[in-house]
Amino acid sequence: MANPTPESPAGKTPPPPPSKLSLSQALFKILKDPDPADSDPQKVVLRRRRFVIASVLGVLGVNFLMFLRFFFPRALYEPKTRFRIGYPSDFGFGVDTKFQNQYRIWVVRNTEGIFVISAICTHLGCTPDWKPSENKFKCPCHGSGYDPEGINFEGPAPRPMDRAHVELDPEGQIVVDLSHVYRWPKGEPSQFGDEGAILRNV
Ligand code: FES
Predict the structure, then answer these.
(1) What pLDDT digit, counting tens, does each position of 109-149 carry?
(2) Nearest CA to ligand 1 atom 4
(3) Left, alpha or beta for 135 (phi > 0: left; psi -120 to 50: alpha)?
(4) Could you count the other beta carbons within 10 Å of the beta carbon of residue 24?
(5) Above pLDDT 90, what percent of the chain?
(6) Which of 120, 121, 154, 162 to mutate to test ligand 1, by most ligand atoms within 8 A of the CB atom?
(7) Which residue CA neighbors atom 1 of ligand 1 most closely?
(8) How many CA atoms lie within 13 A of 118 on its CB side?
(9) Taking the C-alpha atoms of 155, 157, 158 and 159 in order, what is their torsion angle to the nearest 10 degrees?
């Protein structure tokens, strides 16, 4: 036979002692069963205590995450601006587009030598398409057209596309440096003949 439940002097069953809850348990209980109609003062105090504990733990948790974030700096890893593209003999006469996706450049060989065009439209920066059948670059954004050497001849582009610095390394490979470009601003002298803008006699 089971023992009767002990009763308080007033004849009422005493409430169970407050249990220790984790942060997630406390939050879950508050959200799951707030029971606003429950006006028992002890339960109200208990709920408030849990809410305060959950808030404090939440603030401490956020601060801890911010502390951890300190060890992971918000670095922006830019693509390389200086790289090798192979030997001059790898490039035949005309426009070579094989590095367009990787480095956003075209390699061009003409009667003077080899140079590298930065594949950025000088209007607003879109990447033009090489149209072999039309022998020109065509920008899909606003229709600027450039000849095979990147010289603008139609549309709103204000000047030819820039060319990247090129040189040969000790092994004879072409090294491209996109951080150093040569321009031909409208109404100003062209830099396309400068040392480093083209590899001659290769
Ligand atoms: S961005 Fe190329 S024409 Fe406007």
Answers:
(1) 999 999 999 999 999 999 999 999 999 999 999 999 999 99
(2) 142
(3) left
(4) 10
(5) 60
(6) 121
(7) 124
(8) 26
(9) -110
